Amino acid sequence: MKFLHTSDWHLGRSFHRVNMLGAQAAFVDHLVEAVREHAVDAVLVAGDVYDRAVPPLPAVELYDRALHRLADLGVPTVMISGNHDSARRLGVGAGLIGRAGIHLRTDPAGCAEPVVLADAHGDVALYGLPYLEPALVKEEFGAEKVSHEAVLGAAMDRVRADLAGRPEGTRSVVLAHAFVTGGQASDSERDIAVGGVEAVPASVFDGVDYAALGHLHGCQTINERVRYSGSPLAYSFSEAGHRKSMWLVELGPAGEITAERLDTPVPRPLARLRGRLEDLLEDPALTGREDSWVEAVLTDPVRPQDPMARLTARFPHTLSLAFEPEGRRDEGAASYAQRLRGRSDQEIAEDFVAHVRGGGTADEAERAVLRAAFEDVRAEDGRLETAR
């Protein structure tokens, strides 16, 4: 059985104020064509369909067209909500939509209710685990701790229990949206604290044949059976080295996995340039970057005059400009955003404690208080979203 594994569409998101809706529509076209060309048996969308809980209308319209086109192909689609999606909004009409072969899995309570497909070798059970906010679902799963590992582990226990009651030889696939230990993050993922405490081990997915993951934007293999598809488009310059793609996964008769990457359309390549302004303007080696979206970091000791105007004369698609003068070593030279890049809310709060103490770090009890405070805030945000 063949699956097309994708995730993190982030419909409605822009790239440094550039509207990406046209590029997102081109990706949907490519997805539909890939389903046809490769005779795919099911499409797996592992969360973050939208970029925010209340997406703009053009993004909703594109999503609607995508669902209709996938349904018209007669190929089942299993889609889960991610941390950017509003699970309740995304799941509206799930029962009716399911009759058209589009299976939306947004309710944590239904994580052990699979979509069951069949081929010549028997049944394949596809389980959709929506993004699980620990503080909101701890009671649902009876988890011992408020942590991603605890709630995802409890959800997977339900999956394994359901699978154990199915006919011998039933193969299994799980969709999940989480930060798994060993994954490489980029600047464009938000929340789910990628700093360590919220990571879950890949072993949480033991017992299933394939785990189709979403959240991290780089396509990557955690192990043969646990993979991220990554986002189909770049949403930060930290993804300049990414090869954007989807996984074409074939599940064999005994659960064997073969996987092939299918490249997705690139609206415009990304380039990260660094150096003195005059050097960047004159360097012949940069000729191939003139049609790219450009992030430039100028290292001139003195800030040059009209740097953006001069840069765009050669690189008309320059979107980001920063200054890091040569020889300056004081910590204040880095922008606030640069100093926070890649750090979780918990780590930033602990850094603040160290700063106000003049170097003394937070102890374990204080870290626990901070962790509980962030969990309470996330839980309250979730309750407010549910009430809307």
From TrEMBL:
Q: Give the residues annotated as coiled coil.
A: none
Family annotation (InterPro entries): Calcineurin-like_PHP, DNA_Repair-Maintenance_Comp, Metallo-depent_PP-like, Mre11_N, SbcD, SbcD_C
Q: Which GO terms describe its molecular function?
A: 3'-5' exonuclease activity; endonuclease activity
GO BP: DNA recombination; DNA replication
What keyword terms does UniProt attach to this protein?
DNA recombination, DNA replication, Endonuclease, Exonuclease, Hydrolase, Nuclease
- Where in the sequence is the signal peptide annotated? none
List each copy of the Nuclease SbcCD subunit D C-terminal domain by range.
Answer: 267-355
Q: Domain Calcineurin-like phosphoesterase, which positions?
A: 1-218
Name the domain of life this protein comes from.
Bacteria
Key word RNA-binding present: no
Question: Which family does the record claim for this protein?
Answer: Belongs to the SbcD family.
Fill in the subunit field for this protein.
Heterodimer of SbcC and SbcD.
Q: What does this protein do?
A: SbcCD cleaves DNA hairpin structures. These structures can inhibit DNA replication and are intermediates in certain DNA recombination reactions. The complex acts as a 3'->5' double strand exonuclease that can open hairpins. It also has a 5' single-strand endonuclease activity.
Q: What is this protein called?
A: Nuclease SbcCD subunit D
Organism annotation? Streptomyces katrae
